[in-house]
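Example 3.2
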Amino acid sequence: MIVGYLGGIPFITSRNKVRTFDNFNRSSTARWAKHELIGQKPILEFLGKDIEKISFDMQLRASLGVNPEDELDNLRTMRDEGTVLTLVLNNMPITDNFWVIESLDEKVNFFGGNGEILSAIVSISLQEYVGDIT
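Structure, written as tokens:
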């Protein structure tokens, strides 16, 4: 069953493969300008919405049908090349805009006998991308 996807990475649960996420966090802020006045409190001016940010963790385990090294390489490439991605959950895009990988934090849990990664957790931070894809 496909839960959603990030670009070409499907979030999937099946008998043979599990590639999902946990610790999903979405944050957003408003933009405000602060105008200083002599002898008075400053005046705030609402400028509009700021870009949204999303973060989540993915557990990549060979025993769950994924190759952690290949998955990490793919994520690093998308981050390093500034790939603009769609983010869809429950068959709905998260926003009308796209997303880029801002950062990855990788933690390897287990290595195999030949040094291959058997299990890793990657924390992914995304930023909303507003604009055209070039």
